[in-house]
Write a structure and sequence with these properties.
The structure holds 2 protein chains of 2 kinds. Helix content of chain A is about 55%, strand content about 15%. Chain A is of the alpha+beta class. Chain A folds into 4 domains: about 70 residues, no CATH class; about 180 residues, no CATH class; about 300 residues, no CATH class; about 200 residues, no CATH class. In chain A, the strands form 2 sheets. In chain A, strands 1, 2, 3, 4, 5, 6, 7, 8, 9 and 10 form a 10-stranded mixed β-sheet that branches. In chain A, helix 15 packs antiparallel against helix 20, helix 20 packs across helix 28 and helix 26 packs antiparallel against helix 28. The longest helix of chain A has about 40 residues. Chain A is elongated and about 135 Å long. Chain A starts with a helix and ends with a helix. Chain B starts with 11 loop residues before the first helix and ends with a helix. The radius of gyration of chain B is 15 Å and the shape is globular. In chain B, about 60% of the residues lie in helices and about 15% in strands. Chain B has one domain: Arc Repressor Mutant, subunit A (Orthogonal Bundle). The chains are: A alpha+beta, B alpha+beta. Chains A and B meet through helix 1, helix 2 and helix 4 of A and helix 2, helix 3 and strand 3 of B.
Chain lengths: ~850, ~110
């Protein structure tokens, strides 16, 4: 057997020489035979004639020898390949059209598949990623450590919170992302540092040494890849940290890519000690062999114990773990799968077009095929031959598709959807190439087979009589064509419906009133370092002075707030209301809390609904005041007048310091245009007791150009304190646009796919009608000679097309109703079966389709009866 | 006058070729000549079947080919039996003998 295979392979590679050898061998035999006859007394001519007679068909003998050597199949494939190549090159327009059609379909698919592959299929970049879990809710360090100690399911666990830090080593102070973590995090993720070591558990304690591990990017960009960096100190937020390690280039935390990694105990000791500061993302590594449900049960008993032990803060705790992969991709998956499904439809449409192109070509080449058939080519051989051709085309199309896909993925990346922030690039790996290859091959075979079988099932005699339109085949072909057109139109409609729904949802979203006016508002973020601004008074002085200087600039109104709407930050506190029975500790309602200074509501044009705005006289030393939003009133003061009522944060063991509600302002969409508004309380920075609110976002209203304004603002900040980084500089308009980037991304992609499908379907319809007009030239000529009006002729040629289109649209509407349900998560205030959208896209598609019918049909009008009659 | 030819029974050509080549390596023409001679011109191998058979046997590894010089000083492809070929010859010869013995028995007794 092995010998057999080797022999065949060798035969394949030595094809040329084997062929000469065969010639030589047979020639030798022949000559010998002639010689023998000559020796027996024949004349040379006689001997040659006799030998040749005996010899029989030389080609046949050779063919049998080739078969015997077992190279037949390869040979034939090679022959078909060369033949196909020649015939494709002879009709370049057809070849380019077919390959391009597929390149678009395959390219779009590959682009999306590349993303799906990177996001959903590729394993996480950590060893044994299947053991990694994440908790749905954040937790405190104390709880995390108790849970790790009191369970047996986990090999390790770690927590992290990303906090801004100032790095003031070089030039302008910069804001960097610090990972405030515990030592368990490195162990859990289990990625070794490139240089040095991790922060060890013995250092990760109260009063431990200030050590830092750097990210590769930080080390490269800020420390010029200093190979001697270990042991040196860098200055972060006013303290010196000793570098003990540098992580490898591709290392990042699961949900962020921080610049520096520091122990929570050294960077933020006050938060590390607090059990009720639930601000760490926690990650867990299962012991080998332990499954999620076991771990979950293991944690549940610790949760119960902690709830009993610390009822104030931990009463309702319930830790839910999910696989890390699920946590990371869970919210992207629906959108990606919808896009993947949509782009699959695009591929089917382009395949249908491909099949129709092949079919039209089959008709054009009918005589050639028939001649070959009459010369002895078998039905099977002809199909094989055409399959080789369609597969060759499909593979060329697939290769071109790779180029389209490469461009496509760059486009996707440049749109920078937030959900894909983890990815700097979408590499095309072996899986992507395999995907393209398989898709191309299948396309070539399946969609080549359809027209190939219909084209060869013909009567040779018919073909030779120069009548390529024998009734039987024409019917089978037009049936296939009709089927393809109907399917194309239906799929285009489904895509259009999807895009239409997203569009409608997006318009709804954009028309949502955010509750503020984003026009002409610039924003920037500052954080006061704890070392220099540990207490409220120094912070207040800085803020007041900064606002005074900014407001002194001509044409500028400036104010500040802790967290901007739509910027992703949120601080909540539990609330008590004076004069109402206090709920059980730990069960008070939570509201959003914001601190402001300056004329914030005026700058943002947030309307005042009742009471009064903050005034300059509301400041430290004066009675504590607060404004609330309308949702707050709805939730806690049903119909009651809230002005003058007193509220405070739920606190343990301290007397209440009541804030009096002085005003009600309009609701602001803080968490997103498609998110509900939470009850919110605005208090004053100057009356604040929480010194940890050291950050602020400046909002500056001005009609002046923003670039010089930003420079001026930075200058003012640095004239007060040259060590404070100014970051997240963006206009409110941009922030608003960014908040719907995800939806815009989905909409844009689906719109592109739908447009592609509609264009392809239109081309398909056009091609079909043009082909039919062509085929019926004679018939039309007769009609016209008999006095048919242009209208009648138009009706004649368009009738079939329109019928197919209508059938396709009907089918598509049904399909849309079935399939758009899958996108319900992506839609905002639109039902997946929205009748308006379905009607609109059906009409749009019908219009395009009728146009695609009409243009080629009009050509029928220009047929001259005499020419038409002659063309037979 | 044309000699009387007998068609070769199915499957016997391989046996004859193997047997012929077991004497000495030879080229295709010599094989057909030898079979014709030894069978006193009764068996005649057409090249239409000879060469495909040779190539088939070569692929199976029972014979191997090399280019040499013929008795009339021309380049010719010589075939010789391999070890596997020798074994195959014994197997086929044995099978053939059993077959002919059985057929002879039937012809005599039935």
């Amino acid at each position: 057997m092995l010998h057999d295979i080797l022999f065949r392979v060798r035969a394949l590679f030595r094809r040329q020489s084997a062929e000469t050898e065969l010639d030589d061998e047979l020639r030798f035999h022949f000559d010998h035979q002639v010689e023998k006859y000559v020796n027996s007394g024949m004349t040379k001519a006689e001997a040659t004639r006799r030998a040749r007679l005996e010899f029989g068909g030389e080609e046949q003998v050779k063919g049998e020898c080739r078969d015997a050597r077992g190279i037949g199949a390869f040979e034939i494939l090679l022959m078909d390949f060369r033949y196909s190549l020649r015939s494709l090159l002879r009709s370049p327009v057809f070849s380019i059209c077919a390959a391009l059609t597929l390149a678009l379909g395959i390219g779009a698919n590959t682009a999306i598949f590349t993303v799906v592959n990177s996001v959903l299929l590729n394993p996480l970049p950590y060893p044994h990623p299947e053991e990694l879990l994440a908790a749905r809710k954040n937790d405190s360090l104390a709880n995390l450590q108790d849970m790790q100690r009191q369970t047996t399911s986990f090999a390790s666990s770690g927590g992290v919170n990303i906090e801004p830090m100032d790095f003031s080593g070089i030039g302008e102070p910069v804001r960097v992302h610090g990972a405030f973590m515990d030592a368990g995090l490195f162990q859990t993720l289990d990625v070794q540092p490139m240089l040095g070591r991790w922060i060890s558990p013995s250092e990760d304690v109260k009063g431990g040494p200030r050590n830092v591990v750097l990210s590769y990017a930080f080390w490269r960009d800020f420390l010029s890849s200093d190979p001697q960096i270990l042991g040196k100190a860098i200055r972060l937020s006013g303290n010196d940290f000793t570098v003990v390690g540098v992580m490898p280039r591709d290392f990042g935390l699961p949900e962020a890519s921080p610049d520096v990694f520091v122990s929570l105990w050294t960077a933020y000791p006050s938060a590390a000690a607090e059990r009720d500061v639930h601000f760490m993302h926690t990650y867990w590594r299962l012991k080998p062999g332990v499954i999620l449900t076991q771990a979950q049960a293991d944690l549940a008993q610790v949760d119960r114990r902690l709830a009993e032990q610390f009822p104030d803060s931990e009463k309702n705790r319930r830790t839910i773990l999910v696989s890390l992969h699920e946590r990371l991709v869970g919210n992207v998956r629906p959108a990606l799968l919808v896009l993947f499904g949509a782009v699959g439809l695009v591929l089917l449409v382009s395949c249908a077009n491909f099949a129709m192109l092949l079919m039209a070509r089959g008709v054009a080449r009918q005589r050639e095929l028939m001649v070959r058939a009459s010369l002895g080519a078998s039905h099977r051989r002809l199909i094989e031959q055409r399959l080789t051709e369609s597969t060759l085309l499909a593979i060329v199309g697939g290769a071109a598709g790779l180029v389209v896909a490469k461009l496509g993925t760059s486009l996707l990346l440049s749109l920078k959807p937030a959900a894909l922030h983890r990815f700097q690039a979408f590499p095309m790996d072996a899986r992507v190439f395999a995907f393209v290859f398989v898709i191309s091959l299948l396309t070539g075979l399946v969609f080549g087979l359809l027209p190939a079988t219909s084209a060869t099932r013909n009567n040779i005699a018919d073909a030779l009589r120069e009548n390529p339109n024998s009734t039987a085949t024409a019917i089978s072909r037009s049936f296939l064509q009709g089927f393809l057109i109907t399917a194309e139109v239906a799929m285009a409609l489904i895509l259009l419906a999807g895009a239409g729904l997203l569009m409608k949802g997006f318009l709804h979203l954009r028309s949502v009133n955010p509750g503020f006016n984003p026009a002409n508002v610039m924003t920037m973020y500052l954080q006061l370092p704890e070392t220099r601004y540990p207490k409220i008074p120094s912070q207040t002085t800085f803020r007041r002075e900064l606002l005074a200087r900014l407001n002194a600039l001509p044409g500028v109104t400036a104010a500040m707030i802790t967290d901007l709407p739509l910027a992703g930050n949120y601080v909540g506190h539990r609330l008590v209301i004076d004069g109402r029975p206090a709920p059980e500790p730990g069960t008070e309602p939570e509201v959003q809390t914001l601190s402001v200074m300056g004329d914030y509501f005026h700058v943002m044009e947030i309307p005042l609904a009742a009471g009064r705005d903050f005034q300059n006289t509301d400041r430290e030393g004066q009675p504590l005041v607060a404004t609330v939003n309308q949702e707050f009133v709805r939730e806690f003061f049903h119909g009651e007048d809230p002005i003058g009522k007193r509220i405070d944060w739920a606190r343990q063991g301290e007397p209440h310091e009541w804030m009096t509600i002085i005003g009600v302002v309009g609701d602001v969409k803080h968490s997103g245009l498609n998110q509900p508004v939470d009850p919110a309380v605005y208090s004053l920075y100057s009356q604040n007791e929480e010194a940890w609110r050291r950050w602020m976002t400046l909002v500056i209203k001005t009609t002046a150009p923003s670039a010089p304004l930003v420079e001026e603002a930075k200058k003012q900040v640095w004239s007060l304190d040259s060590q404070i980084p100014v970051s997240s500089i963006q206009s409110m308009d941009d922030l608003l646009a960014e908040s719907v980037a995800e939806q815009r991304f989905n909409l844009l992609l689906l719109a592109i796919f739908a447009a592609l499908a509609v264009a392809l379907a239109a081309v398909g319809i056009y091609g079909m009608i043009a082909y039919r007009v062509n085929r019926r030239t004679h018939e039309i000529g007769v009609y016209m000679a008999l006095g048919a009006q242009p209208r009648d002729v138009l009706r004649l040629v368009m009738k079939d097309g329109i019928k197919l289109v209508l059938r396709g649209i009907a089918l598509g509407v049904v399909g849309a109703i079935v399939f758009t349900r899958l996108m319900v998560n992506l839609l905002f205030e639109v039902k997946p079966t929205d009748p308006g959208t379905l009607t609109a896209v059906a009409l749009l598609l019908a219009a395009v389709a009728v146009l695609a019918c009409y243009i080629p049909a009009r050509r029928a009008l220009s047929i001259h009866p005499v020419t038409a009659l002659r063309c037979e | 006058m044309q000699p009387q030819f007998v068609d070769l029974p199915q499957g016997t050509l391989d046996l004859l070729i193997l047997r012929t080549l077991s004497l000495q390596p030879m080229h295709g023409w010599a094989v057909s000549e030898r079979i014709q001679q030894i069978s006193s011109d009764v068996l005649r191998v057409q090249q239409g079947s000879l060469y495909p058979a040779l190539h088939r046997l070569e692929r199976r590894g029972w014979i191997k080919a090399h280019w040499g010089t013929s008795e009339n000083n021309r380049k010719a492809k010589f075939y010789e039996l391999t070890k596997a070929g020798r074994l195959q010859l014994e197997i086929e010869r044995h099978a053939w003998e059993k077959l002919t013995a059985a057929i002879a028995q039937i012809l005599e007794t039935a």
